Amino acid sequence: MKRVLQKAAGLALVLMLPVCFLQGPWLEAQTAGVIVRGRVLDRRGAPATRIKVMVGPRWGFTDSTGRYVLSRVPPGRYKVVLERAGKKAGEQDIEVKGPVTVRDLTWPFS
User: Fold this and answer.
1) Is residue 53 located within the same domain as residue 99?
2) Total domain count, the chain
3) CB 66 within 8 A of CB 47
4) Rounded to whole angstroms, how far apart are CA atoms 33 and 72?
5) Per residue in 21-71, pLDDT tens?
């Protein structure tokens, strides 16, 4: 009985491996996206820190140098929204494409 179970388990493994390898690229395509990065500066050219940057379904905050990075943004056209302490600075259009989209912004939007 033990030998029959071992053969069945081995057969199941052999049959499942091709399915796993075929699904890998499909699953990666579903979760992969574009990296959107850049800097947010104020009108004097100084880094704007702790600004919430929103692009489509993704958002993040600028660091001490005004830099932000948003990963896995689906390709497409979006509005970039900047916000600090609940105050929105307006919106700008952006097209997200390729492996990386770089967009530098000015706080507040003109």
Assistant:
1) yes
2) 2
3) yes
4) 4
5) 444 444 444 457 999 999 999 999 999 999 999 999 999 999 999 999 999
DSSP symbols for the chain: -HHHHHHHHHHHHHHHHHHHHHHHHHHHHHH--EEEEEEEEETTS-B--S-EEEETTEEEE--TTSEEEEEEEPSEEEEEEEEETTEEEEEEEEEE-SSEEE--EEESP-
Q: Is the domain of 54 the same as that of 87?
A: yes
Q: 56 and 42, same structural domain?
A: yes
pTM: 0.69
Residues 28 and 67 in one domain: no
- Region of residue 90 (phi > 0: left; psi between -120 and 50: alpha; otherwise: beta): left
